[in-house]
Fold:
Amino acid sequence: MTHSDQDAEKIHYICQTYVAQKPGRDGQANLKIAKQFQYTTASAAENRAEREAESEECAGADAYMVIEDPATGEVGSPRFLVRLGDVPEFDDF
Structure:
């Protein structure tokens, strides 16, 4: 492996699902992360999000990508590929 290979950005494709929690004191139900799956392609993450969003216990699902800088370990903001069902606002993410 050359030095340039070690410095290449890593792209992570994630499917993340949500379930609704019981309403709190304010009477509003909140979302909680239920599952996370990592894939090597965007289409695989999107397909899983679509399948998960169809299940009864799933309130919603996201498929997104993040870019990691291996030199610093920093991960960028998510870039959503698909958002299905009841999902948190981006600011809550």
User: Anything to note?
Assistant: The radius of gyration is 16 Å. Residues 3-92 form one domain. The mean pLDDT is 89. The first helix runs from residue 3 to 7.
